[in-house]
Structures are given as structure tokens and as C-alpha cells.
Amino acid sequence: MANTDAKTERIQSRVDPPDFGKNTLWDALSRTPGVGLSVIDVHERLLFVNAVSREWFLGSADADVDGKSMRDFHPDTFVDERMDMIQQVVTTSKPMSIDHIYHGRRIKSTLWPMADRKPPFDRVIVVSLTHAGWSSHPVVNAIPFETYETRFIDLGPLNVLTKREVEVMALLGHGLSVPQTAKILHRSVKTIERHKSAISKKLNLSGQSELVMTVSSMGLEVSDAMLTRHEMDAEED
Fold first, then answer.
1. Class of domain 34-153
2. I need a surface site. Which of 40, 117, 120, 180 has the fewest CB within 10 A?
């Protein structure tokens, strides 16, 4: 009985929300494997980028961001879209999310207004998860964020493919047969077989299983083929 009373007393005396050090949550989030975290302001400055986000967006976990801006690392098409989002988040004080493929990796990023104690209120916190990271958490998907529709894509290694080849790869990777793919794209079976062979050669894939694995890991969809590449588009078929 004494132990129960002591436990009850501890619960009743605790502080909610807890009175933790100001860096406790920040350290926990920024150092969690698989979670990208950045702080960016309306002047395009990279104020903080954790190792995960540096790897996903800058190409190396060791990338030096000190004194750097987004345009030091990204094409104008990428920066212009993200700055449009940042301005909206800062102006409305409401979070916004974007589902995008960059450097060949599908990522879902959510931009949160940073609740500074004094002006200027010009910074956002960007939290990013990979396709595999967010698809395994239905609670994340249930939050009704306003979504920013991107017009651009960076397919990474898949940038060597034409738009038609990306369509073919996505359909085959989602389990459709060559004849089914041919019917959907209004092409002959022979043409789809030719595209499939070209895809395997360009990406050095060995068989259907590797093609499916590549599509699945990236979360590639047929509609992604219609997006404009951040860099010069691959040649049309």
C-alpha cells in the first residue's frame, strides 16, 4: 500500500508539460536515425541541417552548410518551390507537406513554422521521412496537412531513362505484365519488351525482381514520369 501511495504522490507532483532542458527534444529528434531535420529561413539560408538531411538532400552527411544557402546545393527549380512553401508557412503559421523524389529517393517533408519568442518570424523547421519511413506510420498519414504539389523531380540514377521508360518501369514494378503494360500505354508488346530491355541495360538490373525492388524502394509511380526533371530532361522515345 505504501508503494502505491508513493507512486500516486509522484504522479500528482510531476510537471506537465515536463520541465526539461531546452535542447532535450531537439537533440532527440535531430539525432534520431531515419529522420531528416533542417532549419531554413526566408532568405534561403541553411541554419541547421542534421546528418540525415545532409545525406538525402546534399549528397553527403559531411557536407559543410556553415554560411551556405540553398542555392549553393540545389538547382533553381528546387529552391524556388521550397521558398514558395517557406513563405506560405511563415505567412500563415500553418504547416505544409510535400511528397517529392530527390536524388532518386522519395521523401515526405513537412515544414513547420518556428515559434520564435520575438521577431523576425522568418524560419521554418523541416522534418523529413523516406517513403518507407512514413508509409509504415498510418498516424503520420492521417494528419491533415496542406500539401504542396511539386512540378519537378530528380530521379537520381533513373534520370538516364526517358519518360516512356519511367512509365514502363513503374507499371512493371507494380506487378503488371508486359501485355498489360502495352495495353495501358497503347503500345505493342514488342515495344514494351524493347523498353524493358533498355531499362535493364541502363540501370544494370538483373531480372524482374531487381526492377520491382528498385520501384518499390523508391515508391515510384507512373505519374512521376510526367514531372519535369530538375536537370535537363532525358531524351524522349
1. alpha beta
2. 117
